[in-house]
Design a protein that fits this description.
This protein is an alpha+beta fold. It contains eight helices and 14 strands. A hairpin with a 5-residue loop joins strand 9 and strand 10. It is globular.
Amino acid sequence: MTFAYNNMKLDRGSNQRKNKRWLTGEFSHESTLFCVINDGECLFDKADDFSPLYLNKTQLPTVQLNSCIYLGKGSLDKESIAKAGVDEAVARSVFAIDFTKLRFSTQEDLHDIGQWQNLRKVTANLSAIDASILALAKGLVHWHISHQFCGQCGQINRLIEAGHARRCDNCRNMTFPRTDPAVIMLVERMFADGIPRCLLGRNANWPEGMYSTLAGFVDPGETLEQTVIREVFEEATIMVENPQYIASQPWPFPASIMLGFTAVATSEAIATSQDDLDHAQWFSREQLNDFQASSVDKNESEQVGDNSDNPQYKMSSVDSISSYLLNAWRKKQIGQY
């Protein structure tokens, strides 16, 4: 199973990146590339919405190593390399940098050569490698922005270890990037009419007609299976059993990993008044066949109905594991029924 953002092929150099001499050599190499993140958006070719721009050292002459985050070393998409103007045959290191860390003159140059795009909106048109690298860059830059101060004493945190840690100037407390686990589940039930249905819900802030599998964050001291059971009941008052792990997907929007499950419902009366869902409903496979694909997913944070002829129903966008779970269940590739 391959999902968007799962194909980060770069060698992260977990041991080497702690060696300042090695890191300086990689940073200084003429084949090294940089991806710039500006307020959560990525830089793309001004003439092509779907061509990410990796910049070389010539384009960022004043960039400093202590402002950069090391992503890894390896091969990139050939078209992206060609646009960057570096040797295609050389394995290269890639760094991420926050746009605000660049000099004003450099910022102006980037506005001239490129455009800023929300990664989620263009992922479906990117290579799997590009999408994964940009997602990692976006997630790590966000982490640095949100951890500038020590959580222990409140003093300034400084970037260290090639951007994979921060250390407090005062108490020397170390802070590392964290990933928040979240479960996302395809809940199914066999109904009295002999038709299996799955449970989908929607948030009031989502685009009209969009429904998704239920999801929620793992609480401290809780197993993944317990989270599946708790979240489904909290969101829709549906009891479930037999949670079965399917697959996972990095989701650095801003800092999560989605852990996909199936589960079997032991009740069917839905109520959504106690949680964040605006509405939830059971859908048959026939109804899912009539869902429209969606290019833009939901924002970052009743009874059985026969509405299969409603053309406004939409699935989550194709970059999400939710879309995979729904399509796999629709094709009878996962689930009990």
